[in-house]
Amino acid sequence: MNITLNQTDSTNAQLKVVLEESDYASKVDQQVKEYSKKAQIKGFRPGKVPAGLVKKMYGKSILVEQINKVLQEEISKYIRENDVKLLGEPLPDPNQSDIDWDNQKEFEFNYQVGLLPEINLPLDKSVEGYTVELDQTTMDEAYENLKRQFGKTTNPEASEAGDFIAGELKQVEGDFVSKTLIPTTRIVDGQDKFTGVKEGDVIRFDLRKTFGDDNAALAHVTGLSKDVVADLNGEFEFTVDKISRTEAAELNQELFDKLFGKDEVTTEEDFNTKIRETIEENYNKEADNLLNRNIIDTLVDNVDVEIPAEFFKRWLLVTNEGKLTSEQIDENFDRYVKELKWSMIKNKVVEQHDLKVSNDEVMEATMDKMLAQFNMPEVPEELKESMKNYAQQHLQQDNGRNYINEYEQLLTEKVLAKLKEEMTVVDKKITAEDFRNMAF
Fold first, then answer.
1. Measured by CB atoms within 10 angstroms of the end CB, which terminus of the chain is less buried, N or C?
2. How far apart are CA 405 and CA 226, in angstroms?
3. The Trigger factor ribosome-binding bacterial domain covers which part of the protein (predicted)?
4. 319 within 8 A of 88, measured Cβ to Cβ
5. What is the mean pLDDT of residues 315-327?
6. DSSP letter (8 states) at residue 9
């Protein structure tokens, strides 16, 4: 066997593998013997099928299978031993000569290879982090949302401001028609048209004017995407089906128990403290997520690396056959390049700091997510074994894909934690309202 790598430029190479008969013959013979033991052919007892007959009937498919196995093993070994930094994996050369599987004894296989250079991380760049300052308006909004969320829903005969009105929305001069729910709190102009209405009433209004030319509000009301509603204009009619009103819940022990568990909070003062802590915790998580995005974007935008663009496009097309077209790859190529750069940066940090994720860490993280899903602070002793088995089954699903996803997420968290230590994070105080406008 002979494997050679010929670098054609800084990011591309040709890999050639030459196999002689001695490289694969014994493996083919062994596989023929295995087939002979298992084959069921009329006229022969099980396990007594002559090897010659098996070779005659299945020889070519066995040969192809074993040569492919040899190629995969030897190419992987060559890449590992020579520390070749690849983009993806080698792809068969489209100009590969035809193979005569019936007569050839020596085979030559050619592959295109994309090479990734070593990179230097631009850790001298600073990134912005945020400390969110809660104001009374944010707290008041949180209280109102909780009161509505846990309040009692009624269906009054006539609507008032703040109600939700269900019905059919229809474009007067157009094809759009859909069942929808209009929150009157989103109405900017013509609120009076939506108050005092009853079941069966028809309201006519200018859609865009009514919702303040806000595409997000229009998308919510129509169920269409923001891009689609950007072109939606004109008069609409809304036929009222039902009115829903939420009577705000009282700040009492019943509400405290629903939110935090029985008797965990017993006074309004403790309730206010708990709500503030919860909101601060949520904002801190979102601020940390935004810092992570800033770190990734800063490094990706400033890392100096040359990408084998044409090979990358072909690799994306081959590995996503039937899922992506050449046109889609071209259209989104900048995003794919950014994802590739981040992968290179991540791998560099993992290598430099020898970062690892243990099986115990994967299991613990999975168990924590399960507890959060079931709103449990900890696993009761009698359920520990069952929960562990459930977590194990979840991680094994989809051929272990869930395990890989959890592992990669934990590894990314360790990479970002290390980058926060090495980069300069400039902390900026910001109001909750400004943070929401920036982050969401």
1. C
2. 31
3. 1-146
4. yes
5. 92
6. S
- Contact indicator for 257, 263 with CB cutoff of 8 Å: yes
Q: Is residue 97 part of a domain?
A: yes
Determine how many CB atoms are found less than 10 A away from the CB of residue 437.
10
d(C-alpha 256, C-alpha 266), whole Å: 7
**Element spanning 431, H or E:** strand 424-431
The two tokens of residue 214 are 């806000």
Residue 348 structural domain: 259-439
CB atoms within 10 A of CB 222: 19
The CATH number assigned to the domain holding 354 equals: 1.10.3120
**Domain total for the chain?**
3
**How many CA atoms, within 13 angstroms, populate the side-chain half-sphere of residue 115?**
17
Contacts for 96 with CB less than 8 Å, ≥ 6 apart: 109, 110
Q: Are residues 197 and 65 in the same domain?
A: no
- pLDDT bin (cut points 50, 70, 90) of residue 56 is confident
Instruction: Write out the two tokens for 41.
Output: 């052919």
**What is the C-alpha to C-alpha distance for residues 33 and 29, in angstroms, rounded to an integer?**
6
Task: Evaluate whether 396 touches 403 at the Cβ level (below 8 Å).
Answer: yes
Reported as half-sphere exposure (CB side, CA atoms, 13 A), residue 265 has a value of 20
Average pLDDT over residues 372-388: 72
Structure tokens of 383? 């359920």
What DSSP assignment string belongs to 378-397? Answer: S--GGGHHHHHHHHHHHHHH
pLDDT digits (tens, 9 = 90+) for 166-198: 999 999 998 899 999 999 989 999 999 999 999
Q: Helices marked H in 261-302 — which ranges?
A: 268-302
